[in-house]
Amino acid sequence: MQLSKQFLNQQQDQVYDALIVGGGPAGLSAGIYLQRYLLSTLIIDKGKARSFWMQELHNYLGLPPDTSGRELLNQGKDHYLTTGGDYLNAYVEEVIDEGETFAVRVRIGRKHPTYMIVRARYLIAASGIIDHLPVLENMQNVFDYAGHNLHVCLICDGYEMRDQRVGVFGSSESSLEVAFPLGWFTPYITLFTNGAFEVGADLRDRLQAKGYRIVEQPIKQFLGENHQMTGVELADGSAIELDAGLVSMGSKYHADYLKGIDLEYKGGNLVTDSMNRTSHPRIFAIGDLKVGMNQVIIAAADGALAATQIWRDIRRSEPPRNFQTNVHAA
Amino acid sequence: MQLSKQFLNQQQDQVYDALIVGGGPAGLSAGIYLQRYLLSTLIIDKGKARSFWMQELHNYLGLPPDTSGRELLNQGKDHYLTTGGDYLNAYVEEVIDEGETFAVRVRIGRKHPTYMIVRARYLIAASGIIDHLPVLENMQNVFDYAGHNLHVCLICDGYEMRDQRVGVFGSSESSLEVAFPLGWFTPYITLFTNGAFEVGADLRDRLQAKGYRIVEQPIKQFLGENHQMTGVELADGSAIELDAGLVSMGSKYHADYLKGIDLEYKGGNLVTDSMNRTSHPRIFAIGDLKVGMNQVIIAAADGALAATQIWRDIRRSEPPRNFQTNVHAA
Fold first, then answer.
1. Which of B248, B280, B309 corresponds to the end of one domain?
2. How many domains does chain B contain in total?
3. Do A308 and B155 touch (CB under 8 A)?
4. Is A324–B187 a contact, with Cβ atoms under 8 angstroms apart?
């Protein structure tokens, strides 16, 4: 059920089988599987999953290609709630390993927050990432286009950018390397540094050999209307026409709550085994937070794998559950 | 596009980037991703994917839990066709590795088959498995319930069987071991050997210690109506009431066409790496045919992974594609 603040004063003694941090595709899928394994589950979601911003999921099997991320999340949350899982809108601040359980410190509410501790035997880190966006004077100008034709994922949206004039917005020299795989989809590429970093001679040569243009002065604003970016206005007042943009500025990893626990990372991503178990036997990582491809369909499968492994762990470690009914003669 | 026999006399020279054997969830997802990577793709499907039999997909994120396998497959096929992929209803008989390409021998039609050779650079084995079912005198009596409340997948349908009286239909001693994880969902388990094999003393003791019943005489027929099995009638005329059944008789692996190629297997499953590449660098295996869990959401993610790796391979091995248009000044 959807939990409210009232929850603070009830159920304090409950230990969930699994607590899932993040109600995106990975977390919701894990929750559905766990509940269907008759394991008690709490999803804690702070809102604004990365997929929430996706206007159209073009590559998710089973859904029409104009399905929005929001629709998927709403359907998934409804599905999860019908399985009897608990769902709390809150922010996970810290996780403490108590040996058999985790104590998870949760902040509920923004203006006048209240704090509580929830306990669970297993933890699933499904809190994902969020893309860094270009920092302009007027950030609303960025948000107007992000998730529409200002893309953040080449694998997701390369197809949408085929043969288009695409601006790549980078944050470092290495971030511009995305131009080369983007070149599979279109040759009309302009790279923007926004005046924030230098492009060395080697990379400059390689980009120019492909015919890509490099623009190194600051960006004044994005141009366009109705969420369709049509170009960029530069600091000197000149404008560059574009059909689409691709942001390549790295990501913020939502994993601060795991700081107190010794886990193996690769870059910002958690290293996991084939069932998505981290280097801690009772912590799983799924979706964009783990090493691997950041795709909704993969995140959803990740959830199924982690949930199944947790079920196996619990099933093998304890006697059969107490059956609720005894109406049938065995 | 949907290809017909006419295709035989056209396009004979085409070499597809990837040929996908099987139009189930894994193959369709791979096809959607490949087409969106601007790679030419042919799916060859013989019909009757395992998921075609599923009446309700209870655990696929994004779809209401009463969605049938058939609906998912229809949606996925439509989706794939809108990306421009080719689809052929046919049966793959043999695959010959020609070094740079595969020559794939295909049979079209059943009564008066015609044969053709199709070529592709990469092969994706997505042809899956099909469950063995109990062999009774009247097989229609089995088909009446299979996929309804005569289940074949504990992970998928354990939840549906919770607290129910479940009959397990095995084909060997080891196949009855499924009773123990099934015991997580219900204690009311009856095991049927259909008179086909012996149950040794050790397993018998372990099953009986759990209170499970073993029935060793042949089954005359399943009882029930409207696709809901209500029990089993035995050879001696006695009847046992059940709420559901679970078939545990192993599977047929649809991989005969790969016989001529040396590939690494584990049991009947193909061994793959994390991107679903087999031990052959240009053959990928996805879905139920590969080692791993047999779940629709995982099969769909498998397709995304294999397609992405094939795109990377091709992209890194060749010059950029020829761009179709030249309307934009770069």
1. B248
2. 2
3. yes
4. no
